[in-house]
Every structure is written in structure tokens, then in C-alpha cells.
Fold this protein.
Amino acid sequence: MAVATDLQKVVEDAAAHLYVWALKDIPQDLRDALADAADTETSVPGQRVLQTILRNVQVAEEERNLVCQDTGIAVYYCRVGEHFPLHPARIYEALYNGTERATVEHPLRSNTVHTVTRENTGQNVGYRVPIVHWDFVAGWDGLDVKCVPKGSGSENMSFLKMCVPADGVAGIKRFVLDSIVGSGGKPCPPGIVGVGIGGSADYAMHLAKEAIARPVGTRNPDPEVAKLEEELFELLNETGIGPMGLGGDVTVLQCHIEHADTHMTLNPVAVNYQCWAARRASAHIAADGTVEMDREF
Amino acid sequence: MAEHRLTFPTTEEEIRKLRAGDLVTVDGHIIGIRDRSHIRIFDEGIEPPLDLVGAFLLHTAPNVRKRDDGGYDPLCIGTTTSARMVRFTEGLGRDYGVRAIAGKGGLPDEAIEPMREHGMVYFAIVGGAAALETTQIEEIEEVYWEELMPECLWKFRVKDFGPLWVGIDSHGNSMFHDVNEAANKRLEKILAGL
């Protein structure tokens, strides 16, 4: 049997902390976006929904409770430095064990089930769960871990379309707008609309998921893509779906887009919604085992 | 838009007074129900082990802590997306006398007619606002079908539960239908301008 190293234990502790912390304490950029939304909203039910959301964030803080009951499916983003002295196989073990430990110790509701039998697997871990995305960095010896517990209400509002090149950017816009209007109140609006464009079918959805995990209102560094983010953000808020789908001015807090170059005959567009309770928390782990929490990446 | 306070279980007469868009606060008893518990009742044909006449059903699966005496303490209780469970609406009203279904995100239009016919309403809650919702739950009084954890049937005693909007009333009106219709009209114009 393999014995966990000290560094593996450090990563496990960080994962256990990140999972619970993400669920309880939403980031400041999101709090600001929600407060701005409450200032902007003019519809009576929309206004009341946003005030209730702001009060809920406050109550979660006072009571040290979870913001939302949906503890989600645990998704981690890892950036692993070339010289980080723990192999990704062991990092995965640590994330798995940390997720399980947090679930038992808090305790947290366990959501993970076998996808055919629907039997609950126990502690928010299971076959290929948690879900971990990897990125490797040459010439570096650190590890960044971001935990994004993803709720099902918003994840169920995920859509993929293989537009054709002749559909152009208008086709992309049309699909995003259709998706969000069709989703109505189901994904807990106002949230973050993540859009992935280009790459391949699977990669477009991966990019859409990356997009929802960015700090609210950050812009894609490519000016063409950033312009599309701005345009879609404005158009989405002209639809009138409003907070919780009860009608109003604020349908989305933001639209984030990630892109990849693609085949000349492809024009994939993927939409992944993130609810208003856009939970995320990050840690940086140095090669010597020092941990710094809330280091965004 | 009127504001109401209701205690559950309640009667058809009280439910018929509510209109889409009204705000409601609830006291009394509410029943937590979810995908698996619906499937057990309607698809597997197993009778629910409690009386649902006049009941308020909440779409939920809570975070709880089991006590040594076998009971459960609420840790974090919130509300899930209702639309997944719309096909059970008619059976709940017709066969079991349920008066209110509460959840988030709305029910599609297929719920409007059964709610009109059987004297039921859909209450829309603020999804994700679980920390607040938990403070309105006084006690978990009973848990049925524990083997479906966390998708059991839960009996909660609540106080000042809300805010809730009458999303669909028992007279054929739906806030969600109206919002979606207006949004689709706006969408048509937006798309024409692309």
C-alpha cells in the first residue's frame, strides 16, 4: 500500500478546505456583481429576489452555513508546475480523499450516484468523480488548485451546437440567446453564462466550463472575443427573463467566453450556465508545502 | 399583487384565493419531496407513507446531521429545480389532494391545467437562498423512506417560510408563461437585428 507523503497530505487538506470554503463564502467579485444587480433591477419581483439573495449571503456568513444546499459535483482545476514534487496521480488521490473527508466531517449532502443504477455512492466521490482538469506549466515548481462545486440546476442548462462556418458569429449569438431564454428561471438567474467557441465538440464544452470559473466581469484577452462578450452580455439582459425567471432587467451577471482555434469546417458553440451562487475557491501550494488560499488564477 | 399568510395543510378554498404574482409567507408543515421519491410513488406504484391531503410539497433534498436518537437536525435546506418533476403534478392533485407545490425556476405550461382543475398552486422560491431558508425551518419532524437519502420524504415544521410567489395559480394563470412569452417576443426582435 502506498503511503501518502507529507505533500500529498497538504494537498488533501487544501482540497477539503477549499470544498467547504467555496460552499460557504462566495467571492467578493460575485458579491459586488450581485449588489450591482440589485441597484440596477427595476421589476418588483426581481428586486425582491435580489434582496433575498443578498440577505442569504449575509445569513450564510453569520450562521457559518452553506450559501446553497446543493453541494454540487466537485470540479477541480489544477495547474501543475513541471517541478512540483508530487505526481498528478497522487494529486488526484489527494483531491479525492479531501473531497470525501470534507463530506464526512462537515457533514455535506452527498450528490454522487451511479449514472445507470442511480444508487448514491456515499461521499461525493465515485468513479471518475471528483472531476479534475489539468494544465501543466513548464519551468515552475508550484501547484494551483481551484475548486468549483457545480450545482445541478445550472449544469442541467448546458447546450452544444455544431454551427457551420456560414452561420458565423451571428449563429453563435443566436444559439447563446436561444439557450438562455429557453432556460428561463431554471438555472437560478442572474448567473454567469459561460460560452466555449471553437476547438472540437468536447473541447468547446470544456472551455464553456472554464469560462464560468473566471472572476465575474473579467474579459477575454483577445479583443475580438472580449467584444463578443460585451455584446452578448447586453443582448442577454434585453430578454427580460429576470431574477429567478420572474421577469426583470437583470437576466445574467456576466457573459464569459473562452475560445480555441478550430477546423476550417467547424464552428462549435457550447453554453454552460453558472447560477448566481457561483462558488469557487483557490489555493496555491508551493513545492515546500506552504499553502496560500484565495490565489486566483 | 396581494400578500398572504397561509398555514399548511390547507383547503381548496384558501388556495383558490391566490392569484399569480401574489406574495405568500407560510407556516405549519411542509413535505420535502424530490425526483426519487416521486418515481417511487408514481412509477413504482408504492403508496406514500403519510397523508398528503392539503399538503405543501417542497422540491428539496437537505443537508442534515443524524442524531443519536435517530432523528435529524437540519444543516442546510434549500430548493431544487421544479421543472424536472412536472409530469407528477396531476397525480399529486388528483390522487393525493396536494394543494401546493413549491420549488425554483417554475413549472412548464403543462402544469397549468391540472392546477386549475384540482385547485392547486405552484409557489416560486428564491433558488440557492438555502442559508436563509434553513433559518425558517423549526424542526425535521419525520423522515420517511430513509433508504433514499437524501431524496427521502421529509416532514418539516416551518415558520415565516418565504418569500414565495404564486407562480401558477388555480385559475389558469402562470407568471412563467407570461415572462417566457414576452421574452420570446423580445428575442425575435433581437435575433432579427443580428
